[in-house]
Amino acid sequence: MNLEILTSNQKITVFIGMAIYMIAMISIGLYYAKKNKSSEDFFLGGRTLGPWVAAMSAEASDMSSWLLMGLPGLAYVSGYANAGWTAIGLAVGTYLNWKIVSRRLRSYTIVADNAITIPDFFSNRFHDKKKILMSISAIIIFVFFTIYTSSGFVACGKLFVSLFDYDYTKMMLLSALVVVLYTAVGGFLAESMTDFVQGLLMFFALIAVMIVGTAEAGGIGKITEIIGNMDGFTSLLSAHDRATGEAVNLGFIDILSTLAWGLGYFGMPHILLRFMALKDPKEMKKSRVIACTWCFISLAVAVLIGVIGVAAVPNLLEGAKNAKEITSNSETIFIVMTQIFGKKALPLTILAGIILSAILAATMSTSDSQLLVTSSAIAQNFYKGVIKKDATDEQILFVSRITIVIVTIFGAILALDPDSSVFDMVSNAWAGFGAAFGPLVLFSLFWKRTTLQGAVAGMIGGGGMVLIWKYWLSNLGGIFKIYELLPAFIFSAILIVVVSLCTKAPDESIIEEFERAKELA
């Protein structure tokens, strides 16, 4: 759906601002390309991140365009409940990840033969000489990050269609090209520095749109009056059904499903890498405070934007013929509200261009992280770890950059459907990583009895259960409608414990490394 809000001249002004932003991101990539002296620099920045960059880049790469489009869209359609419980689950997950995992993972990756990727860590942690964990991890990362990256390209395409009525496919491909350029050239440092800038921009944009949207809707009183007349919209125990106009009660399973999103954090490679890359582990607490503050405020404001949008843009869903189109249209609420703001005066039009660049920022900050993690998994872990163990840094970097291009192509193919839901695509990938890696990360760090066999079983079982639950068991209804991440996470944890206890205990060298990492943390 394209609402004609800006004039042709205003659209040109907005587009120029966004083009400047994209050029700036590529420039950062070119600048940091000179700092890549080795594959460790390219994949982990030589562990040189300060607390602010580590925190902001972690959160920016985490939230993606889902924060500005998926979450406000969910709130716009159904009200506080689904979006609110999801935000609460994510906020709790963010805090626990920084509190429990960050410092221990930072120390353990150094003890575990200076592991520079998550597959490296798994392999070194369990002394996996056959590189079984490394190979499985690389495959999982390739599959699920391709889906995740694709969701970002969808968001970019929707942005340009909503703003300028440009061709969706062409603009989606252009955005993908920009991400490829600065990620393939600049590596981890470029990605982290751009994410830092993008995190600040996203935060500013959310606050600005919330304030402007409130004014456009007629103030808090008017918004409260409008949403108060929508059955179930303001409750945390029910959702508003747009099709019938009636409330749909949320059961325990529904609420648990949305809260379960928080479990995903323990298995997100692109977030975990920030913990590993922090220069000084003593700064971890400072990073945690920065990251959690950004996260809590951003999530709350994103939900409020969707709620405010109901009063500010009541006709957004006009013409939507089915549930898929309703979801797709609702995810443009942030874009439409920004256009309304930019229409008022030239300076505000320029500012609107900057604000709308936040969607590009959100997309790119996540896509670049995912591309880099995927390339490291294939080049560092699969190519060097399994295929060519004597590979040079030059060969590893070459394979890495080729991988970035290949994943981008596959992601773009998946993103060809303009009605694809950003929320749904992120949901699938989030569950995959959360269940395949999350339990194993926790057990690897905190249970020394975990064995290689248990790790393999948990990783395969968790990832496999996500697919089985989503595409088969969920069709049974009832309790099986729960978000697949939760049962898959539990299943993976059970497999790790049972298989580990049924197999030979880890040898003394593994136990010694475990205790050393514990002391360093």
Structure described in brief:
This protein has 521 residues and is mostly helical. The chain has helices at residues 8-33, 39-44, 51-63, 66-78, 80-111, 118-125, 132-164, 168-217, 220-228, 252-259, 269-277, 284-312, 323-330, 333-342, 346-387, 393-414, 422-446, 452-471, 485-501, 508-520, and strands at residues 238-240, 247-249.
Which descriptors would you attach to this protein?
521 residues; 20 helices; 75% helix; mainly alpha; Sodium/glucose cotransporter; single chain
Query: What is the percent of helical residues?
Result: over 70%
What is the topology, as strand order, of the major beta sheet? Answer: 1-2
The CATH class, by name, is: Mainly Alpha
Rg on CA atoms, Å: 22 Å
The main sheet comes to:
2 strands, antiparallel
CATH architect. name: Up-down Bundle
**Which residues sit in consecutive blocks of at least 5 with pLDDT less than 50?**
none
What separation lies between the terminal Cα atoms?
A: 51 Å
CATH fold topology = Sodium/glucose cotransporter
Name of the CATH homologous superfamily = Sodium/glucose cotransporter
Strand residue percentage: under 5%
Q: What's the shape?
A: globular
- Number of extended strands: 2
Q: How does the helix and strand content classify structurally?
A: mainly alpha
The SSE order reads HHHHHHHHHEEHHHHHHHHHHH
